[in-house]
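Record 1 of the preview.
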Amino acid sequence: MTVLASAVPVTLIGGAPFPRSDLDAALNIGRTVAAADGGADQALAHGLLPEAVFGDFDSLSAHAKAVIPAERLHRIAEQDSTDFEKSLSRIRAPLVVAVGFSGARQDHFLANLSAMARRVGPPCILIAGSDVITLCPPRIGMDLPAGTRVSLFPMGSASGISEGLKWPIDGLKFASDGRVGTSNEAMGPIDLAIDGPMLLILPGSCLGLLAAAI
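->
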């Protein structure tokens, strides 16, 4: 199913609004550019020509279809997944940094988080407002500044152990309809061991540290 294979991280652009600063932060990590449906128009507006565009093309403009080479346009007609999921499932790369997938339709945003929790495609960091979000790997360590907000949101049953958090999670049982772990705090470097689908949410300033860690 792979359509875009990249040896370096990929920036994936969606159709929701985002500031240029978010795109620049993503491009600083992922120099290969892909887009999901109408995200191709956003890429073009910022002077970028995507290597691949995925989606059902219900929001892709005629202009984008005309200027992007036909072999880079990959129409996927099925309606059982979002364009984000369609894109992730067809990219092979060490990391995807996604921008333009939050802040518009919240049903799409929640579906995108679900796709991340189900480990669709390569590891992914989603830039969302002032935060960055990823599916926490089984083990992760980061040298975070003391006082950094660290939120853990379960997408199912999850548990873990931690070092360096103000409120340790050892022995706690998390669930999306039960205990969640919002607004914890790093005391300095942290080390997490997670069992189960858990989203790790950090301030946007931690993007580089998070990308290096996963």
